[in-house]
Each structure stands twice: as C-alpha cells, then as structure tokens.
Amino acid sequence: MLKFILRRIGASALVLLGASLLMFFLTINSGDPLKDLRESNDPNREQLIAERIERLRLDDSPWERYWDWLSGVGGCFAGSCDLGVTINGIEVLGLTQQAASSTLRLITLSTLLAIVVGVALGILTAIRQYAGFDYVVTFSAFLFFSLPVFWAATLLKEFAAIQYNNWIAVGQYAPWTIVLVAALAGFVLQAILGGSKRRRLSTAAAVFGFVSVVLFVFNALDWWRSPMFGVGGVFVVSAAAGVLVVALVTGLGNRRALFAALTTAVVGVVAYLLTAPLLVNQPSWLLLVGLFVVAVVVSVVIGAAWGGYARKQVMLITSITGVITSLMVVADILIAHWSSFLGVKPRPISTIGSQTPNFRGEFWEQVLDLGTQILLPTILLTLVSVATHSRYTRSSMLETLNQDYVRTARSKGLSEREVIVKHAFRNALIPITTIVAFDFAALIGGAIITEEVFGWKGMGALFQDGLEAVDPAPVMAFFLVTGIAAVLMNLLADIAYAALDPRIRR
Fold first, then answer.
1. Is pLDDT of 505 > 60?
2. Which of 187, 192, 201, 285 has the fewest beta carbons under 10 Å from its own?
3. What is the four-CA torsion angle of 481, 486, 488, 489, rounded to 10 degrees?
C-alpha cells in the first residue's frame, strides 16, 4: 500500500508540473499586462511602464519566468516559500493564505454536507424505488443539477436573505404560513415512510398536528428572535442520534451498543454542565478544539469499555455520538446568543462578503456572524452537489441490491438493515468515492462563480483579478492551491478504495 501511495504521489507531481507549465503559458499569452498603462495619460507613464516591466520580468523569456516561479514554489519545502508579487507589488503568499482559508472553508463544509445528505437520499430512493418519494427526489436532483449557479444564488439572496431579514424584525409566522408548512412537512414525511394509504394518512395527520402546534407555540414565545434549547434539548437530540446510529450500525438488539451510545450522551451533557461557565465566559477556538478532541477520546474509551464482542463497531457508534453531542453543545450556546446577535446585527443574513466589516461583538456573536456569512454560498454549493451524489448513490445501490450475494444474504434470514448496511452499502461506496473526489474539484470551479455573486474574497477573486490583469502570479497561486487540493482528494479516494475492497490492495 505504501508503494502504491508513493507511486500515486509521484504521478500526481508530474501531472501538476505539466499542468502548471500549461497554465503559466496560457496566462502570460492571454493579453497585454501593460494595456492600461499604454492608454494612460499620466505624465509618469513611461516610468510606470518600466516599473511594471521590471516587476513582472517582461524582458525575460517565458521559460525564465516560469523557472523563477517554480523555484519559489520549491522553496516552500525548505521553509522559504516565494509565490512572487502581484502587478501592484503585493506579496502573493499573504493573499493566497487569506483567499485559501475562505475558499477551502466553504468547499470543505459544502462537500461534507453534500456527502451526508446526498448519500442518505440516494440510499432511501434506492430502497423505495419507483415510489412517490423516489420520483420527487429524482425530479429535485435533476432540477438542482440543471440550475445555473448565478441564477440560484440570486434567488437565495432574495428569499433566504433579504426577505428573511425583513421577516426576522417581527419574527412571527402568519397562521396560513404555519398551516402550509405543516401540510408540506406531513406530505414529505409520509412520502418518505410510505406504507398503506391508512398509514400514510395517519402519518401525515400526526406530523401536521405536531408541526402546527410547535410553530404556534414558537410564535407565542417569540422563539424565532429569542430562541432557547437547553441542556434537556441537547440530551434528547444526542440520545436520539445515538439510538439512530446504533440502529444503522449494529441494530437495536445489541444492548451493549445501545447503552454505550446513551452513556456517551449522558457523559457529554454532564461535561457540558461542568464546562459551560468556561465556554460562555472565556471562549476561544483553541478551547473548542481541545474540548472536541477530549470528547472524541472519551467517546472512544466509552465504546471500548462497553464494546464486548463488537468493540470496533461500538467504538464507532460512541465516537459518532460524541461528535454529534459536541456539535449540539455548540449549537445550544449559539442559539442562546442569537438574541444578542440580533441586537448587534439586526439584519443577520448577509449577501456580500465572508465576514461583516468592523463587526463588534463577543466571541459567540462573531461565530454567528461567520456562520451567517457562509450560509448562503454553502447552501448553493451543497444543493448542486447533493443532486450528483444522490443520483450516483441511487444507481450504485440499485446495481448492488440486484447482486447474487445480496439475494443470498436475504435468503439466509438476515434483517433488511444488515443487508443494506453491511452487504449492499459498503460495496456501493466504491463508485461513490470516485464521484466525491471529482466533485470536490468541480466544486472549486463552481466556487469561482459563487464567490463572485456573494462577494467572497477567496481563490475565485484571486484567479479572476490575476487573469484580468494578465498577472501570472495570482493565477498560479490559484492553480497551486486548487490543484493540490484536487490531487489530495483523488489520493484519499484511492486509499478509500483499498479500505472498502481488500482485493484492490493486490
């Protein structure tokens, strides 16, 4: 496996080298970097032209300029990274660090959400083939996949930002809106659960009544402007998530796994009570990361203690439950600070930029600001990727479910959960892994348009500014970051193949 990885790294390095050469020569031949100065009436025009020629080394041959850039990149391995300067004399390395943090934050979050939602929908539609739910998801997938990114971004800015900001000033749903939302929720859930007509009607009615009551209560409590969740809510959601993970991984018949998941939720809530003063009064990113690592380690230890004969599976269950519990703790703190955030930023959902300029707020208000800034572009990129993941997962699952070994597993009397999770899903993941790797690279390209629409100063802006100015340094910095990210994702996909199918290791 090590030899395989080293060969892949070597091949990827050669691909990056050839692609960088092509990108550099295409960029420097895409226009005239002195065009704006030639048309200028500035009395110092000749001096400015001479300075730019010297800065961009236009008197040198293209090969010398490329070798100079490549030598600067090679210096990164020795701790002296030099990506050159822009046409205005600004260090590209500093610009790249800022732009890469914005873009990769957006792309990583969108990819993770798309994988979870898309794969889940693909599995459900494969299981419910040709049902109403399957048709609805299939239609929605093709719809979102076909939407122009810039047009969908404009719709999101109008309805999810501008109209929401107008509504949150009052924070009350009209009665007809509550009825409509409750009816839609009932329709969707009955389509997912399926069953006989009587069961569908009872499911829809129960969901309609529950959602209606909850929304009316939220209106009465002014919950949308002053929300509350509490320790009890954290425990309920964490415990429910743990039970769901147990049902998917081992089945509820494994009592050790069930007790381990519930123990993890209880320990997480107790830890929340103990660390709440620190999290509220002295929060920091270092503290959050440290507590998250501790939570994962404790969760794994709980799984090892409860595991028994299925220790590895139980450790997986408790680690997932621990991660969900940690996320719920952070969500509870953010919800508690929502009202104060509205006091600092009355129109919370922004449509421009990756953060609010000169924003003044405490740590948790700043986290909420970063979250609301990233919300719309993340939703947009996730919707586009979910369409791809759900369709490929569905087709891969359907192909796997028709294999002989799946029929054999069913004939042996295994439960449908075991057939789906242990036999079908694992083998269906191999083609899905390929799509995830390619989609990550495609998302980077789509993020250029998304960043332009939402005014993000990320890698897309760096690329566009460099290309318009015929300045190769920013363009090559974009290529370097996105190219390495795409290569790493494909390398991880290759490693995942070997983990999913041991035959590939040979």
1. no
2. 285
3. 140
